[in-house]
Amino acid sequence: MTKHAAIVGAGIMGLLTARELLSLGWRVTVYEKYPEMEYRNSTSFAAGGMLAPFSELESADELIFKLGMSSIELWREICEELPAPVFFKTNGSLFLSHQRDKPHFENATRRIFHHVKESEAQWVKVSDLEPELGETFDQGLYLPREGHIDNRQLIPLLASKLEAEGVRILFGEIVQDLRPYVVETAKGSLLYDIVVDCRGIGAVEDTADLRGVRGEAFLIHAPEVSIQRPVRLMHPRYAVYIVPRANDHYYIGATSIESASESPVTIRSSLELLSAAYSVHKGFGEASIVEILHGIRPAFRNNAPKISFEAGLVSINGLYRHGFLLSPVLARAFKNFLQDHPVDHADQIFSFTRG
Amino acid sequence: MWNLADKTIESRLLLGTARYPSPLVLQDAVKASGSEVITVSLRRESAQENMSRQFWDYLLESGAHILPNTAGCHSVKEAIVTAHLARELFDTNWIKLEVIGNDDTLQPDPFATVEAARILNNEGFEVFPYTTDDLIVAEKLRDVGCRIIMPWGAPIGSGQGLRNVEALRTMRRRLPELTLIVDAGIGAPSHAAYALELGFDAVLLNTAVALADDPVKMATAFNFAVSAGRMAYEGGLMQASSRAHPSSPTVGLPFWHHEQNS
Question: Cβ(A32)–Cβ(A171) under 8 Å?
Fold first, then answer.
């Protein structure tokens, strides 16, 4: 008989888990708390879509780097299945610093070189790669194996593709309780062969050790700017990325604040992010703001992800600032586990309760 | 054991909690450092009820005393509002007073700092003011009721160590009754040891540990350095001299060697 899985949460982790289970021949139902009109409030839509395991070495654990290495290949596979093209680039990224932040920059790049091969991180003349930035920046660190994906374009496409293949996505369906084998909504309890908790920060009340880290970002339209690849700018407190999107759009973010506040973006954060962008390219001065984004990243104490298993219930959470980098890898790890295939770094990402 | 604002503690290292790779590393670093006082910066977002309780719990789990700070404030009013928030939120009358005068150098504004300290002392706060190595500012802070003064070693986050040792030495000599803590600019364990050797009661640092390749190992190094510096101070350092002095008796030396030595 066909097995039936309930996935709670239609963020990127939930969708990619649905995709993997579907490929195993499961029946899949996805519960999403937001109605379709408000789906864009989900944290996955506020992300930058960076696939940057090398840059993240600056502050992240080596585990993130190792897991993230297979991410771009998996995204390629996912994008090929989609009915329409998605803005997905793999032309590397540039790590830049203003003169004043050079000491921080030296520390950060030293940490990257600690882990990578010569071919994976190269000092370049900025004007050779990004002519419009050559006046402000002389040298930069080029990370050729990094990529980025337009998450805001991808998520709706992926969701409708899964729906077309038979996955049921129940928008606006609030899950009141989830337990092994059981999902409970206002309509009553339903039984499944397995319940997969992909709620992200939505699971904070009943997930030990989970906390929210607030991120804020801007989506802007800058016709006067032409940058081909993501720029990461050295900032003393958090990673500021300027990520090109289709049609002269750019994503600028994100802050990192130890808070789960859902309040609107502050002036201070706005000034910091937008002045960072303006300092990279004066053309951003004339850009228009398309949308101001904020989201709450779910993180465990070590800022690393975890897949917890108990009979009838699996939770995949703690992707922190690495949602798009790690979600395809974790979904694949889960699939491999179900098939009894070996999983890389299983000892670090899996945790088991009651056998 | 020593006394910091009526609390008896062992460690002479105060540790900041910002910019660690993860809360787990932060917790391990606090443990390794031996620190019993950790500073927490109060951003407005955190003051709301939605503040990540979990992060707050991680800080409490360390068992250290919490010293909230007014980092990022630029005026007397802002600092006082933040201090009030901190008192409510962290249930302590301790406040690290930081009023920044210049965003570029992160220099403290001495005039605003003294004024804010006066008001906060009157309101019953235990004020830990962050200031420069200027003696007169330190005296003014004492005059408005501060028992603790925290002069910088060098600008925040610069890691330059003690840039003006003579000024710090003078401050220590002229204000023997106050608790003096070198805050900011400490980049290496040797800087911290030096501050303690000069007779400072403690050091406060953050970046040097948080951004180290291995924060836990660096925290351990600072733990040893601070203990060594304090022990050296208590043991009584020898005076430096411009010439060599033999450390073994010279009785057995031929007289012409004596002459070379004198």
Answer: yes
Which is the catalytic residue, given B7, B96, B140, B217? B96
User: A271 lies in which domain range?
Assistant: 93-144+213-298
The four Cα atoms A187, A191, A196, A201 give a dihedral, to 10 degrees, of: 30
Is A235 in contact with A245 (CB distance < 8 Å)? no
**B96 part of the active site:** yes
Compute the distance between CA of residue A150 and CA of residue A49 in angstroms, rounded to an integer: 6
- B192/B13 Cα distance (integer angstroms): 9
- Please tell me the predicted confidence (pLDDT) of residue B64: 92
Using a CB–CB cutoff of 8 Å, tell me whether B51 touches chain A.
yes
Domain identity same for A21 and A43: yes
Outline where chain B has alpha helix (H).
23-33, 44-47, 53-61, 76-90, 110-122, 135-143, 165-174, 189-197, 207-210, 215-235, 255-261
Q: Which residues pair with A216 in a beta bridge?
A: A294
Q: Report the residue of B17, B19, B22, B82 to disrupt the A interface, i.e. the one with the largest count of A CBs within 10 Å.
A: B22
Task: Copy the structure tokens of residue A230.
Answer: 């993501």
Which of left, alpha, beta for B228 (phi over 0: left; psi -120 to 50: alpha)? alpha
Q: How confident is the model at residue A239 (pLDDT cuts 50, 70, 90)?
A: confident
Residue type (1 letter), A33: K
Q: Does A64 reside within a domain?
A: no
**A228 and A200 together in one domain:** no
Q: What is the dihedral of CA B89, B92, B93, B96, to 10 degrees?
A: -80
Is residue A245 pLDDT above 60, yes or no? yes
Phi and psi at residue B193, in whole multiples of 5°? Answer: -60, -40
Of A269, A298, A327, the residue that ends a domain is A298
Compare CB distances from A257 to B25, B43, B58 and report the shortest one's residue.
B43
Indicate the DSSP class of residue B184: S
Which of A262, A282, A298 delimits the end of a domain?
A298
Both A130 and A246 in a single domain? Answer: yes
Examine the pLDDT at B137 and tell me if it is beyond 50.
yes
Flag whether A230 is in a domain: yes
CA distances from B122 to A162, B80, B146, B178 (A): 65, 12, 10, 18
Longest dimension (CA), chain A: 64
Following CA atoms B246, B252, B255, B260 in sequence, which dihedral angle do they give, to the nearest 10 degrees? Answer: -20
**Cα gap A345→B10, rounded to integer Å:** 41
- Tell me which residues of chain A have a C-beta less than 8 Å from any C-beta of chain B: 59-61, 103-104, 107, 111, 114, 204, 209-214, 236-237, 257-263, 266, 299, 301-304
pTM of this structure = 0.84
Quick one: DSSP state of residue A196?
A: E
Stronger pLDDT, B246 or A106, i.e. the higher one: A106
Q: What is the ipTM for the molecules in this complex?
A: 0.80
Bridge partners, residue A5, by sequence: A28, A194
Counting the structural domains of chain A, the total is 2
Measured CA to CA in angstroms, residue A7 lies from A197, A254, B234 at distances of 6, 28, 64
Q: Do A260 and B51 touch (CB under 8 A)?
A: yes
